[in-house]
Amino acid sequence: MCIVKETKAAVQTEAANSDEFSNQRVPMSARKGFLSLLTVSLGYVFVVTSMQAGGNIGAGLNFQDTVLAVLVSSVILAVLSCAMGVISAKSGLSLGLLSKYSFGKAGTYVPVAIVVITTIGWFSIDAYLIGQTTNTLFPVIPIVPVAILGGLGMTFTAMRGMKWMTYLSNVAVPLIIVFGIISMVLAVKDAGGIAGMMAIPQENPVDFGQAVAWGVGSYAVGAVMFTPDIMRFSKNARTAIIVMIITMMVGNTFMLLSGAIGSVVTGTPDVAIMLSMQGLLAPAFLVLVLNIWSTAQGCVYSGSMSLNSVVPKAKRTWLVAGFGIIGIIFALIGFYNYFGSYIDFLSAAVPPLGGIFLADFLVTYRQDYPEMDTVELPMVNIAGLIAWIVGFVVNRIDIGIGMPVINCIIVAFVVKAILGKVMGSGLKTKA
């Protein structure tokens, strides 16, 4: 009888593993090592919006202040992502499952819808960019076929899960960093060295606080949304913290600075275009594909994971396939044209979730989420919804102090912590 039970448990674990543990905690036996987590995490942070934010910072500040603003914003993002990393490493829960504890069985549709809309939009933009930038580098190649092929390829690696995503990131991350550094060194040299960079006048001067806000805003959404789905595979909180510090202080800083230097010296924040302008066409194409691919596969993976948490009977691979097809269609019908409005929406809707999850982790559940099969979740956690609405509103207004993206996280944390204490978690122990 014992052997039968152990065999059944092993089969269940294997089945959950093949479905990326989308509806349960990641068991310790399935946790990943430091290096695989680091490369996947760095792959997520190599995102176009960070280069664009870096370009804005570089155009608004002198070089010395640009470097300082980038470092300050990376420190803030490191604190936020470390908090999310600790939550997911200790709980083993994905973003979708964390949402169930914070918003209830029906209430979780709100954050899941936000995440799905965000990741589909992000993926569609990446699919279009891979076609557009390829066309820029090689004008004879049309945009649409490359966008379709790229979208299908990125969907495939996401479908294969963390294992294949790790394989790709192990190749992508070192190459992007090496060629990115080469490009930045050449750009600084062309500008006359550090002294030359310091002498370049600001095209659109901004104050230091605004520059830091741009840097934080470039990946605050990713820090909240993507971190849990990666760091739930961490063996302990310490590993998660180290991985996220390196991801933000090295990876995010690298992306912001490459965008800043590229924009000021060559007129483009895109490292792939910058490489091509420097006569390095082959590395430019390689960096283009790997840079976009490493981020886009993460969008499909995380979006489908969150969706699977509310439709647990659906097979994850089918959700990934559907997710990818919809994203490709969005790319072909021109969703990229709404990039600005889309970024504005997600930058307001996603960050408050971080404050809510942190409040539940520290205050409501005291770092110990009960097993879902032992409790009955409420249909709607009113405290979670109120905290999110208040956080969203705070993010949309300027109260004159701090940064909206940070203010909304703090306010959402306070509101959820207080209401959670007053109203309780809403959980009921199953008989």
Automatic annotation (TrEMBL):
Primary subcellular site in the record, as a coarse category: membrane
Keyword Transmembrane helix: yes
Family classification: Belongs to the purine-cytosine permease (2.A.39) family.
Organism from which the protein derives: Pseudoflavonifractor capillosus ATCC 29799
Pfam families noted in UniProt: Transp_cyt_pur
Family annotation (Gene3D superfamilies): Hydantoin permease (1.10.4160.10)
Subcellular locations according to the entry: Membrane
Keyword Transmembrane: yes
InterPro entries for this protein: CodB, Pur-cyt_permease
Name recorded for this polypeptide: Cytosine permease
GO molecular function: cytosine transmembrane transporter activity
Keywords: Membrane, Transmembrane, Transmembrane helix
Membrane topology qualifier: Multi-pass membrane protein
One GO cellular component term noted in the UniProt record for this chain: plasma membrane
Segments passing through the bilayer: 34-54, 66-87, 108-130, 136-155, 167-188, 208-227, 239-265, 271-296, 317-339, 345-365, 377-395, 401-419
Coiled-coil ranges per UniProt: none
Gene that encodes it: codB
